Amino acid sequence: MKKKLGAITIGQSPRVDVIPEMVEFLGDNVEVIEAGALDGLTYEDILAFQPEDDDYVLVSKLKDGKSVKFAERYILPRLQECIDKLEREGADVILFICTGVFPDIFKSKKPILYPQKILHGVTPQLVDKGKLAVITPDKDQVVQSQKKWCETGVEVIAVPASPYTKEDELSGAITMLKKKDIDVIVMDCIGYNQAMKKKVSEGTGKPVVLARTMVARVLGEILNS
């Protein structure tokens, strides 16, 4: 019998831009079921979730491809509803497919995995005494990203580049990072894909950690045990 991975996006499901690249690392014995915190909402509904000065900012994608930015506080109850839904559908493990920081408020009978905790547990060990560069989707996330990663004890520089826009924001980030003395780059959003990782690695000449594939490799260890 296949094990079920319940994947929760902070945007709208299904995440056809994310899950297919993760599946190859999960093993053949895994079925992915999905839920989204913004499922059932219109773009106009989500505009009411705009972040204010002290909000924790999240960025995600809707089913129609639009990128949206919103305050985390608006979706916390909806995330619990996603957990409940996936539990009813038989999920063995639940994964937040977002690298943001979430409060410890969710209830589940199944293990809940947070990519942020996985990335923070591994990436600083790859840097040692060097400097870590973080690529984050939106300019409004730069300060919170810098603060989040500095808590791991490494020296950090953060730059913005959205994985969801048609504009080539990654080239601008690469140009900025080439001028910096950095050792490792982490692409701190599940929305970045393997082609984007290759572009950043080749453009900077530095090793790059991609959130979605690192998390998927760890999940593969759990789900195929």
Automatic annotation (TrEMBL):
Source organism per UniProt: Anaerovirgula multivorans
Organism superkingdom: Bacteria
Protein name per Swiss-Prot or TrEMBL: Protein AroM
NCBIfam families: PRK10481.1
InterPro entries (alphabetical): Uncharacterised_AroM
